[in-house]
Amino acid sequence: MDLHLRESKIDGELAYEGGFLKVQRDRVALPDGKVTVREYIKHPGAVVILPLLDDGSVLLERQFRYPLERVFIEFPAGKIDPGEAPLDCAKRELLEETGYTASDWQFVCTIHNAIAYSDEHLDLFVARGLVAGERQLDDGEFLDTFTASVPQILEWVRTGAISDVKTVIGAFWLDKLTSGSWKPA
């Protein structure tokens, strides 16, 4: 299926290797037989946690993001370490960034947030049964946590106060999950 749309790798090379990201440069054959170059970021994958407190409020973060030089409202999230299961990563990141642990975890979906230039994927999880504790921020990590209602989060999405794609998608999922109109597949 869709064979008339597929591109085929001819050869490739690592164009750049940083401490976290890698840039791959591949020569590919297009469906019409022409050859072109595709450059993309190789990413290990990440998780996003949708932390739902017992009172129905949601735990969020405010964090400065250097590439865009501003503070963003986001859900807790983090990079999957080599050999780490996504759920284990979600549990680790929730504790590290917020101090919370959760007794109930539910996989929601996988999203691909930058398909034109990255192989990154993000696995979204809802965390319930939250218990507050001591957060364990990574060295060099600075963020504030706060709570908001699902309607407030959706209003921030509508007005552009939330523009981070993982948080926008997570907000829509939380709205559907908490209303009972959607269930994860």
TrEMBL record:
<keyword id="KW-0378">Hydrolase</keyword>
<comment type="similarity">
    <text>Belongs to the Nudix hydrolase family. NudK subfamily.</text>
</comment>
<dbReference type="Pfam" id="PF00293">
    <property type="entry name" value="NUDIX"/>
</dbReference>
<feature type="domain" description="Nudix hydrolase">
    <location>
        <begin position="41"/>
        <end position="170"/>
    </location>
</feature>
<dbReference type="InterPro" id="IPR015797">
    <property type="entry name" value="NUDIX_hydrolase-like_dom_sf"/>
</dbReference>
<dbReference type="InterPro" id="IPR020084">
    <property type="entry name" value="NUDIX_hydrolase_CS"/>
</dbReference>
<dbReference type="GO" id="GO:0016787">
    <property type="term" value="F:hydrolase activity"/>
</dbReference>
<dbReference type="InterPro" id="IPR000086">
    <property type="entry name" value="NUDIX_hydrolase_dom"/>
</dbReference>
<protein>
    <recommendedName>
        <fullName>GDP-mannose pyrophosphatase</fullName>
    </recommendedName>
</protein>
